[in-house]
């Protein structure tokens, strides 16, 4: 028997570390997805079929709820309902854009660090830890002070800021998977490292990454709102929950809805991401410890 | 023990150095000539060249960085590009306000978050647990500036006598100072406490399943002694780790809450300087706020050996 004929006999074990989690009905996850879906659908419908645009200025100022303006108008006569859901578009675009960017950069870093271990791992993780030791709002402030604020700066900046969180969360399972028999088998069988990482390690870290995705998206919604509140995020007249709350503050004694409506919608959107994160956690890791954000 | 301490101190220094490099580098990426900004739009080239030389802007970047950081270590953060005021003086006047707010908020968070987490864990799965969980969940979803704004609305209509936008230093009138800072501290303390509550609940539930708890119960320890003496001490270790990491969110939160309540802290200085493109002030203020956060974190690291004796002997840190 030659060496060549024995090599293919080594079978590569399936990539899944454990049995595929049973996809049952999960109340927490379903509620979160439904709320988020409702916000997305409403914001799209209003953008397409709404009677007003988010920047339409009207004659009736600070009217309060009425038949023509369901939630009333702001100090420039703009429709509050339209603006609140128009702001949802900005907010979710920033959240998904930034989080996706962070995941696309962070997951490969975490995989490489976890799989290669030793020196590269030490260097990469030291860099990630240092970056995480700086409060993210401060980093965001540095970025917007240099580049003039706007949606794309928010997406790019926050995307970079949250890279270490993905790298960290992915590294731990990557380290464990590395030691598993099916990975050693693949290595002995001569499978190249990038293929092992892509086919065997990546599927095993995806569940952690997915939970982190929901957590990070929630944080992005909050950071975007905070920066916009400070005037350093989405720029007027484009609506944003943070900016609407800031602008409504001056008139809130006359019309508290100007502050309360965007505030509550913001909270509901964040809570939806929180529910999705908690639900995914239960779903993917039912016996394990329940982590907090 | 000594090894543990030295690693922590070196790491903190590395973080501060890294932050200083980021702050310095980004301010130099800004398009436009700082000399032109100082001298004004219609200044002569000679004047600009003179200012460039004075500020050392003609030197290579690394030597500018070294001189900046060298001065910063001695407390000299340069002077404002706009009015020439010393950045160090401004930062020194405002830093205590931000730090007091952060500490106040942390105290409020610990006061409600930790007991709520324990209480919720003791009634796991029952209605009380679900109520606490929902409250903590909502606390995490509503950002501090929304809570702050709503509180301003409520207090200005229901309790007009409450001092809202008038800051008084602690040294001048401690009671009034604590009253003025109460609302901002509560606004910040709600989400931070919610985080602590969730961590605490998970940690207590985790500890309750351990063997030593059963042993202690079998030896006849009462429910109260079991909780206070055996469970809490072990449950606190991961909570301190996680809480320490969350302090950054708290420091970042002060920036925004100060704006809501018009407090004269570092946050409002940073925000104002950003809108006015006053880069020396932005650099100095962000560096000071970041450095004080690192210092707070270092202090939490030093608290560790007190609650976890394993660190005292081995120097290893169990990251929970």
Automatic annotation (TrEMBL), chain B:
Keyword Transmembrane: yes
Domain ABC transmembrane type-1: 95-304
Main location: membrane
The UniProt record lists the keyword Membrane: yes
CDD domains reported in the protein's UniProt record: TM_PBP2
Coiled coil: none
Keywords (A to Z) from UniProt: Cell membrane, Membrane, Transmembrane, Transmembrane helix, Transport
Places the protein is found: Cell membrane
InterPro entries documented for this protein: BPD_transp_1_N (IPR045621), MetI-like (IPR000515), MetI-like_sf (IPR035906)
PROSITE patterns: ABC_TM1
Regions that span the bilayer: 101-119, 131-155, 175-197, 235-261, 281-307
Top-level taxon: Bacteria
Membrane association type: Multi-pass membrane protein
Family: Belongs to the binding-protein-dependent transport system permease family.
Record protein name field: ABC transporter permease
Source organism of the structure: Streptomyces prunicolor
